[in-house]
Amino acid sequence: MPPRYWWLKRIGVAVGLLLVTLFALRLWWGWEANRRLQAEIDKIIAAGEPIYPEDFDPKEDIPDDQNAARLLIGADEAINLTSEQQELLHKVTGEPELIQARLDEVRAIMESNSEVFRRLRRARGLGRTDWGMRFRTPVINNSIPSYDGQRQLCRLMDVSALYHHGTGNDDEAVEIIRDALAHAENLSQEQMLISQLLAWACELLMIQAIENTLPSFSITSKNENPAQEGGAARHAQVRGLIAELLDERGARAGMRRATMYERMYQVDIHKVFVRGSTTMSAMFGWGGGSPLSALEAMWQHVLLPALTLDIVGALRRTTALVEAAGASSFLDVPTGGYDSATQSGFQSLLHPLQGYLYWSFERAFDQFFRMLATRRLAATALAIRLYEVDHGHRPETLAELVPEYLPQIPEDPFAKNRLTIRYLPHAAHPLVYSIGENGLDEEGKVQRQLGAGDFVFFLDGWRPEDNADDKVSPTSPQAGEHDDDVKDDEGQPDENGEGEEEP
């Protein structure tokens, strides 16, 4: 090589050394990323928690006659509705006044679906559930079951509870509500987050039914013979309903399972990318999606360690959320996850999954604690109603309910320092409330948008409707001194956002 080309030789050597160095760095980066991922997986395994799809298989077979899921699937299949009745069912769900106005048509729905309600009642007493889902890699290709029939069961139970109350059979109305709570817990035993969301929606729908009917709910006093009060709910029945609302073990276990499932899904996504069986574009539905595109080739071969490390970060955050399912307060839920909206283009390339997945989890935990707060409010409202039945008036403070009607005053899951839920017995419309996500006590101001206002449970059946205050609700046959101020909302959806959760 002539001396005048030595500079070209030096450049070629330098480029070669650079490529070798980059290749070595890529090998080290991939090794280190895989080491960190395996370390996180080993921690999960050491804790005895599932991390691979087959880990979610049931540990034992449940006979069909002891499997609540089989009964619930059978109840779904037994639903007998004409197209007109289906339309009516949607229309009257959560609407006690509409049910009263179309009582004969609603009665026909109840009678034609008596077998459905028998199966729901039997499922309530079983407590063991296997929905038949078996997850295998790639989980992204596993089919998701349709929950339309289970949503329909939720609507049927809501309408049935309101119907029985409207016909003076509060004894059966309470039992239907208890069936619905058991149905929601059985739904939550499925691992996927979508089943938890449906379970919460069903619970919130039934709690709305409690709020709509509570002022006129007929309950025997603790010293009365139930036979003397035809159709009245028994004191012990309502106590059982209160205990079930305050028992959060099933809901928390369901949220924990769903979070562990999402963690497994993260690991399985990594396997899919390593094998090259899908692409980022194909998974998220972005434009392009061809595995041969330059961008996809870069992801699959050059920046795969970045995806691995992104999964490691997601696993750490999700593991923290697994524990948060048992937290006493929403304030204990980890926050501050990766936010893709605030990152530069290169940073977002290094974190394709964390912002998407972690944002979804934060929203789910927000709704989970809203559901817990609403259950506690409903239980407290029922305890106040029992006190009112026994004493002829509502208590002045929640402390008067302990220990006879409540084991303790429920904590507000959104408040600091384990403060309890609030009670305003002398408001224009008496209520109990939680302060909500913003952590501010707004003295029972109804939440009209997410994060603003309190979660409110009205004790007199009134619901705010465009600030109207001119609709009088039915007077309770067992009401106390506060009945003069009772108003009615005509069964409108809960304006604190709970109405949006209707299945």
Could you please describe the fold and organization of this structure?
- The chain is mainly alpha-helical and 503 residues long.
- The relative contact order is 0.10.
- The radius of gyration is 28 Å and the shape is elongated.
- The chain has two domains: 1-48; 64-256 and 366-501, no CATH class.
- It has helices at residues 6-46, 68-78, 83-92, 96-101, 103-112, 114-124, 148-166, 170-188, 193-213, 235-246, 249-275, 280-284, 294-302, 304-324, 345-350, 354-391, and strands at 422-424, 431-434, 455-458.
- It has a three-stranded antiparallel beta sheet with strand order 1-2-3, with helices on one face.
- A hairpin with a 6-residue loop joins strand 1 (422-424) and strand 2.
Give a quick set of tags describing it:
16 helices; 3 strands; 503 residues; 53% helix; three-stranded antiparallel beta sheet; disordered C terminus; 2 domains; elongated; mainly alpha
What is the secondary structure topology, with strand pairs?
Layout: H1 6-46, H2 68-78, H3 83-92, H4 96-101, H5 103-112, H6 114-124, H7 148-166, H8 170-188, H9 193-213, H10 235-246, H11 249-275, H12 280-284, H13 294-302, H14 304-324, H15 345-350, H16 354-391, E1 422-424, E2 431-434, E3 455-458
Antiparallel strand pairs: 1-2, 2-3
Helix pairs in contact: 1-14, 2-6, 2-7, 5-7, 6-8, 7-8, 7-9, 8-9, 8-10, 9-16, 10-16, 11-14, 14-16
